[in-house]
Amino acid sequence: MQKYPWKTVAFSTGFVMSTGDAISQKFVERNEKFDCKRYVRYWAFGVIIALVFAPVFPPFFLGVMGLMKGDSFSIIKQKIQKDYLDILTSCWSVWPGVQFVNFLLVPISHRVLFNNTIALGWDTYLAWKADASKQKSTNTLVRSKSTDTLVRSKPPDTLVRSLETTVASLPVWGDTPTNQTSMFVALSP
């Protein structure tokens, strides 16, 4: 992940998508013949969506949120320049592992709940990134007549601890709470 983030995310997303298809073919649909072309289609879609969607999401999200707040284009541009890589690498650090666990260990009937629980923590992180300039203890907005400048800060430790606690309390079938927390810590940015 550190050395080849694009390849790692793309191929792991492809792997999760194609594994989900293989499980569906074998255990849900109970197909007698495995459809290799279908499997490759799912793998390719996972690779493509990881390479296309994830890099486009942070500027889209920050831009739309900035416009909705009434931020100037210069503030939005600086916000994107400042937070783009943080959001992208956080996305890549969290979601491939979450989806891997979701498809591998979580029963179908609980997958949406599991995903939405993690998404709550993710959305909390995104809200913090999008609106940090309004909080005293995070980013500082420096204004002058000619430019607006945002000063960078790190996410509060309480957010990371909150996400670890949330993940540790989730019922992951066949695993212990200790392993769940260490799985999350390994995935966290």
From TrEMBL:
Molecular functions (GO terms): channel activity
Any single GO CC term annotated in Swiss-Prot or TrEMBL for this entry: membrane
Compartments, as annotated in UniProt: Membrane
Organism domain of life: Eukaryota
UniProt-listed GO biological process terms: regulation of mitochondrial DNA metabolic process
UniProt keyword annotation of Membrane present: yes
Transmembrane regions listed in the UniProt entry: 40-68
Record membrane topology: Multi-pass membrane protein
Signal sequence region: none
Keywords carried by this UniProt record: Membrane, Transmembrane, Transmembrane helix
InterPro entries attached to this UniProt entry: Mpv17_PMP22 (IPR007248)
Family, similarity comment: Belongs to the peroxisomal membrane protein PXMP2/4 family.
Official protein name in the record: Mitochondrial inner membrane protein Mpv17
Annotated organism of origin: Magallana gigas (Pacific oyster)
